[in-house]
Amino acid sequence: MTTHGGFEPVFCTIVPPHVLDKLARAEDPALAGPARRTLERDALERTHRRLTTVLGAPSVAPPAGAEPAKPHRTVHDARHGTDLPGHKVRGEGDKPGKDATVNRAYAGLGATFELLLKAYRRDSIDGNGLPLNATVHYDRDYNNAFWNGEQMVFGDGDGEIFLDFTIPIDVIGHELVHGVTQYTANLTYFGQPGALNESVSDVFGSLIKQYTLGQTAAEADWLIGAGLLAPRVTGKALRSMKEPGTAYDDDVLGKDPQPATMDGFVRTGRDNGGVHINSGIPNHAFYLAATALGGHAWERAGQIWYDVLTGGELKEQAMFADFATLTVKAARERFGDGEELDAVSKAWERVGVRTL
After folding, report:
1. Catalytic: which of 150, 160, 175, 198?
2. Is 235 helix (H, G, I), strand (E, B) or coil?
3. d(CA 139, CA 91)
4. Which tens digit of pLDDT belongs to each residue from 81-90?
5. Contacts (Cβ under 8 Å, ≥6 apart) of 183
6. CA-derived radius of gyration, the chain
7. N or C: which end of the chain has fewer CB within 10 A?
8. What are phi and psi of 278, to 5 degrees?
9. Nearest-5° angle of CA 198, CA 82, CA 144?
10. Dihedral sign from CA coordinates of 220, 224, 226, 232
């Protein structure tokens, strides 16, 4: 397993640490307890990921006789334990069972595979038919979902703040696209490169939802994780690409800290240098470009972002300006000096990121 620049999978979660930190300090033990246990479990998984990176992750090949350009999905049930992958409960081609969580995970893996194949002619997340594996019902009251460099893992949520993490299809897509980044640009998971890593996953997570629903850019809600927050939470999602900083404003969770432009760029040592916070800036740039172009966002704006991610020029330590410059170049190379180039250039200008 190699990428340009080297294979270095990272441990990526959908719920940012700053959200769980806030919950862990809540006075209500029903809120604080699950958050603390989730943070502890995430720390263990993060350590495991680092060890696997050092020792080498096992290679995974499609099963014998598997058809190319077809998904190879397997869903496991952890039965509220933490041993991965758990007990196999559904394989490729198996009929849906009674467990809605299993069925949603299976469908989400398939939707991600389909967008990558149909829109970008990519055979699975590695481009070579990598099997897509997922584990559901991980741990008890586990408030997260993650890609660990090898597979997807979903918690059921605590029912107080978070619901089942398989509910939003964009959460499934977001985490799987960390795998695409892992096999291509391999963006360093810290600071601006880490925020770009997170933003790319939000972008394609949203596109997977839009593709599945047949939505145009104008029809999409541009929310990440809509349907994940429990009824008691004052909020609509984890993040908003349309209006970063407005996804939630809750007594327990606090206020969504994402900036929409470089004027609000947050400098912090937490959350790997604010990767889940400052990702709002490139997220908003994509939203602006996609809505300016109209139609289906995966066709033009998404194609440009995909070209940059997979084109081989994006460096592991890329800053926002580097990524923006490459999107301008990609827009010109694929579409010429037309509205695509204009939309992308103006989008970055509006969020305060200069192209070089």
Report:
1. 175
2. strand
3. 22
4. 999 999 999 9
5. 1, 3, 7, 125, 126, 127
6. 19
7. C
8. -75, -10
9. 30
10. negative
Query: Distance from CA of residue 290 to its chain's centroid?
Result: 18
Q: Is 276 a catalytic residue?
A: yes
How far apart are the C-alpha atoms of 101 and 252, rounded to whole Å?
Answer: 27
User: What is the sign of the dihedral through the CA atoms of 151, 70, 201 and 20?
Assistant: negative
d(Cα 153, Cα 85) in Å, to the nearest integer?
Answer: 9
Over the range 30-63, which residues count as b (16 or more CB within 10 Å of their CB) and which as e?
A: ebebbbbbbbebbeebeeebeebeeeeeeebebe
Spatial CA neighbour of 171 closest among 143, 141, 140: 143
Give the tens place of pLDDT for each residue, 303-354.
999 999 999 999 999 999 999 999 999 999 999 999 999 999 999 999 999 9
Catalytic residue, chosen from 137, 276, 284, 296, is: 276
Q: Is the pTM higher than 0.90?
A: yes
Q: How far is CA 199 from CA 31, 94, 256, 289, 326, in A?
A: 28, 33, 16, 14, 15
pLDDT, tens digit, 9 for 90 and up, residues 64-103? 666 788 999 999 999 999 999 999 999 999 999 999 999 9
- The length of the chain is 356
DSSP 251-262: TTTEE----SSG
Helices (H), 25-168: 29-55, 100-120
Which class for 337: exposed (0-12), middle (13-18), buried (19 or more C-beta within 10 A)? exposed
CA dihedral defined by 204, 210, 215, 218, rounded to 10 degrees? -50
Measured distance CA(203)–CA(208) in Å, rounded: 9
Q: Are 177 and 204 in contact (CB under 8 A)?
A: yes
Q: How far apart are CA 41 and CA 48, in angstroms?
A: 11
- Alpha helices (H) along the chain: 17-24, 29-55, 100-120, 169-183, 191-213, 271-274, 280-293, 301-310, 320-335, 339-350
- Mark 134-153 as b/e (b = at least 16 C-beta within 10 Å): bbbbbbebbbbbbbbbbbbb
To the query of whether residue 175 is one of the catalytic residues in this protein, the response is yes
Contact 311, 330 (CB under 8 A): yes
